[in-house]
Write a structure and sequence with these properties.
By secondary structure, the chain is an alpha/beta fold. The chain folds into two domains: 69 residues, no CATH class; 187 residues, Rossmann fold (3-Layer(aba) Sandwich). Helices cover 34% and strands 17% of the residues. Strands 7-6-5-8-9-11-10 form a seven-stranded mixed β-sheet, with helices on both faces. The chain is elongated and about 70 Å long. It binds 1,4-dihydronicotinamide adenine dinucleotide.
């Protein structure tokens, strides 16, 4: 089949809907690496996982650097230093990496998520999973979280409050694809935290999990530092670029022959599932439904 112009990028198509419409109107076949299906075969091409791995790791290191306390427990001649308490909101790729990094630094770690499937992984990494009853856990959402009921949100906010006021660090990673990030950390909760505590919100670019978060800014409120940063990958350019590049090459291998000719196989679920526009139309179902809303 003769293909027109093909564009491969990270379009953020759930939010950049104007760009998507323009690509369709210009008859450009576009692929967006941030909507690649979350299947085992696609893992080697998953740029969101790569960048989330960097973000989870860097978020914890940034917190440790900002906190006026040690992470690990120390028995010193000057007395015993108790370990820091880290609370992690959301245990997707970034959250689990944050758990692993905080545990390696010796902190005591607690985790909230609405997907029961992550509990085992959290416990396996040496952290405590905090259950809040009544979460909507939609098994048909492709492994992603979905919007929660008002009643659950209130119960969760209270549980987060009770744990947050005992924590030294909170790492916010909870997101819902195509939607604003859920607000899990209320202003009143932040105000009740211990002075010197640190909140790192890596969901900042989609609104943040903390009501005080400002994207790309550091806010200090009542002695609590709130850092809004969804782009920690730029602070670790070498490995972030290496992972991104490898993901792109693995994806290109699906659509380019050994001789370098373009060969789009529309029967391949990854090629099909990553395509956003083709033949002057929007071909990605979720993007289409958001644009038609
Ligand atoms: P994400 O960035 O969309 O969300 C991060 C976490 O926040 C998720 O664990 C989500 O359940 C949680 N969350 C959302 N709303 C919440 C709320 N109200 N309260 C508490 N937590 C909330 O997720 P990410 O990191 O992109 O991964 C999503 C899923 O995809 C995971 O199951 C992961 O294992 C899976 N995955 C599969 C891959 C593959 O098979 N190729 C690759 C990467 C991820």
């Amino acid at each position: 089949m003769k293909e027109g112009k093909v564009f491969l990028a990270v379009l953020n198509p759930y939010f950049n809907t104007g760009l998507v419409k323009e690509l369709a109107a210009k008859n450009i076949t576009s692929f967006s690496l941030d909507v690649i299906p979350r299947t085992s075969r696609a893992q080697a091409m998953d740029i969101l996982s790569s960048m989330a791995t960097v973000a989870g790791y860097k978020a914890v290191l940034t917190a440790a650097n900002t906190l006026p306390k040690f992470f690990p427990m120390f028995m010193t001649a000057a007395g015993t230093i108790t370990p820091s308490k880290v609370l992690i909101l959301g245990a997707g790729v970034a959250g689990l990496q944050a758990v692993a990094t905080a545990r390696k630094l010796g902190a005591v770690v607690e985790v909230f998520d609405v997907r029961a499937a992550v509990k085992e992984q959290v416990v396996g990494l040496g952290a405590k999973f905090v259950d809040v009853e009544g979460a909507v856990d939609d098994k048909t959402a492709g492994g992603y979280a979905v919007e929660q009921t008002e009643e659950f949100k209130q119960r969760q906010a209270q549980a987060v409050h009770d744990h947050a006021i005992k924590s030294d660090v909170i790492i916010c990673t909870a997101q819902i694809p195509g939607k604003k990030a859920p607000v899990l950390l209320k202003k009143a909760t932040v105000e009740a935290m211990k002075p010197g505590s640190v909140v790192i919100d890596i969901a900042a670019s989609t609104g943040g999990n903390c009501e005080y978060t400002q994207d790309n800014k550091t806010v200090v409120q009542n002695g609590i530092t709130i850092i809004g940063n969804s782009f920690f990958a730029v602070d670790m350019p070498s490995d972030a670029s290496k992972m991104f590049g490898k993901n792109v090459i693995n994806f290109l291998k699906l659509m380019v022959t050994k001789e370098g000719a373009l060969n789009l196989n529309w029967d391949d679920d990854i090629v099909k599932g990553t395509a956003v526009t083709h033949n002057k139309g929007i071909v990605h179902e979720r993007v289409k439904s958001i644009i038609n809303q």
